[in-house]
Amino acid sequence: MTDTDTRTDGRGDTRSRLLDAAEALFAERGSESVSLREIGRAAGARNVIAAQYWFTDRDGLLKALIDRHRPEIEAARHALLDEYEAALAAGTAGDADARIAALAGALVRPSAVKLDQGASGAGYLRTVADLLTRPEPQTEPLGYDVEGGSILRWRALLEPLLDPDAVVLHRRFHVIRFVDVELAQRARAPGRRDHRLFVSQLVDSAAGLLSARTSEETRRLRAERNER
Q1: Alpha carbon 228 to chain centroid distance?
Q2: What pTM did the predictor assign?
Q3: What's CA 133's distance to the chain center, in Å?
Q4: Which of 38, 45, 69, 124 is most buried by a 10 A CB count?
Q5: Domain 3-55 maps to which CATH number in 2.60.40, 3.30.565, 1.20.1630, 1.10.10?
Q6: Cβ-based neighbour number of residue 136 at 10 Å
Q7: How many CA atoms, within 13 angstroms, populate the side-chain half-sphere of residue 114?
Q8: Nearest Cα to 72, choosing from 41, 42, 116?
Q9: Residue 116 class from Cβ within 10 Å (0-12 exposed, 13-18 middle, 19+ buried)?
């Protein structure tokens, strides 16, 4: 690694430039179709293996990109969950439908802010969707299971409001994935500037999915599966 690759200049240090380049390329093409060498070239790194130097491998780069955005989203979601719990304590949270709607908003709105952050936000949203739509979804880089994280807190607050069968059948994860994929798709749409209607409808859709009752067919099939 050369001195040029490790210094801090007007564009930021090499690590930051690599992440900037990754976000821009992922926003255009998704995280699965961009090589580490392409990212290095786009960042202007002289060493062709600059990305490997800084992040070891693709998973390391993806985690670093996620970590770059996660504190902002975590803080925003925790703030909304604080408001929800305060309303519960004050007796002003409303009925079950109103509570589910509030929790749907706490899931959607912190991530939806990324729609207004250009290529950086779009690259993040597409990376999250790519991780969740792999044949084996990858949640570890997203921090969804981290103790004290906002998603674990959200899951715990939501569980008492859900159909018990929906809990067992991973309804919460399905809704998380639905929301993240929809946000990533929106980020790909050119020329969209006002996201308010989209975000409001996404909150409504997430709330509807969360509150849906489990059908008798689904209950029967689950029982049959458990008997095998």
Answers
A1: 35
A2: 0.91
A3: 12
A4: 124
A5: 1.10.10
A6: 4
A7: 32
A8: 116
A9: exposed
